[in-house]
């Protein structure tokens, strides 16, 4: 039995977030094997009940108020102390401490803003390579013994490190390389049969992880 993919144009809105999620999962998987104790502690923290957003918002507002008050007190003590630091060492230290506390509270009061992660950047970089592929001109074939890429390139199933399945993609990590296939590009059989085929091939060889939300 063989499974043929004829690659079509990749959609960045689908590719980038799903590949980013897969890259994160793959990194986490490797990290869990290397640092099991650290991940045990992390999982315990993540299992704790999270504070509701409304409570978190009120807490941030309080932190901002505390921060402003501490900064004002700090400046009130610091400015005159700087004119005679030796004679006013206590107010100087108290002012520096209050200012530092104020800055800390102000930072705690800021809402976390999601920045572009390393995985997002890596996914975007990978997408730029796939974006240049000409639709219909690149084939990937899965045979009983190997995975045949475009041209003469091929690799064995033993070379696969991990397989990640997302909503729309099949992502293979092999020999420090990544191959991203769209489920819709499978031209032979159906996607369920293909996943069953790869799952069977994975026994004793590589991990299969489903990250469909």
User: What structural class do you assign from the helix and strand content?
Assistant: alpha+beta
What percentage of residues falls in helices of 4 or more residues? 40-55%
The biggest beta sheet is recorded as: 4 strands, antiparallel
For the record, the count of structural domains works out to: 2
What's the helix count? 6
Radius of gyration: 27 Å
Under CATH at level 1, the class of the largest domain stands as Mainly Beta
Which of globular, elongated, flat, extended, rod-shaped describes the shape? elongated
Q: Residue-averaged pLDDT, rounded? A: 87
Give a structural overview.
- With about 210 residues, the chain is an alpha+beta fold.
- Helix content is about 50%, strand content about 15%.
- It contains six helices and eight strands.
- The protein has helices spanning about 10-35, 35-45, 55-85, 90-110, 120-130, 190-200, and strands at about 5, 140, 145-150, 155, 160-165, 170-175, 175-180, 205-210.
- Strand 6 and strand 7 form a beta hairpin.
Characteristic key phrases:
2 domains; 17% strand; 52% helix; single chain; PH-domain like; 213 residues; 8 strands; 6 helices; 4-stranded antiparallel β-sheet; alpha+beta; 4-stranded mixed β-sheet; elongated
Q: How is this fold's topology laid out?
A:
Elements: E1 3-6, H1 12-34, H2 36-46, H3 53-83, H4 89-108, H5 118-131, E2 139-142, E3 146-148, E4 154-156, E5 160-165, E6 169-174, E7 177-182, H6 191-202, E8 207-210
Parallel strand pairs: 5-8
Antiparallel strand pairs: 1-2, 2-3, 3-4, 5-6, 6-7
Helix pairs in contact: 1-2, 1-5, 3-4
């Amino acid at each position: 039995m063989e499974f043929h993919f004829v690659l079509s144009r990749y959609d960045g809105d689908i590719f980038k977030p799903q590949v980013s999620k897969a890259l994160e999962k793959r990194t986490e998987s490797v990290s869990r094997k290397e640092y099991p104790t650290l991940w045990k502690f992390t999982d315990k923290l993540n299992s704790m009940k999270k504070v509701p957003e409304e409570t978190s918002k009120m807490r941030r507002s309080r932190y901002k108020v505390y921060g402003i008050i501490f900064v004002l007190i700090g400046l009130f003590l610091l400015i005159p102390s700087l004119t005679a630091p030796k004679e006013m060492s206590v107010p100087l230290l108290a002012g520096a401490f209050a200012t530092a506390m104020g800055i800390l509270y102000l930072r705690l009061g800021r809402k976390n803003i999601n920045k572009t992660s390393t995985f997002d950047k890596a996914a975007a970089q990978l997408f730029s390579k796939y974006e240049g592929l000409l639709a219909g001109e690149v084939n990937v074939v899965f045979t009983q013994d190997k995975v045949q890429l475009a041209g003469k390139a091929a690799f064995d199933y033993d070379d696969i490190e991990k397989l990640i399945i997302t909503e729309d993609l099949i992502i293979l990590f092999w020999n420090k390389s990544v191959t991203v296939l769209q489920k819709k590009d499978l031209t032979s059989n159906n996607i369920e049969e293909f996943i069953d085929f790869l799952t069977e091939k994975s026994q004793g060889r590589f991990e299969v992880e489903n990250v469909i939300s």
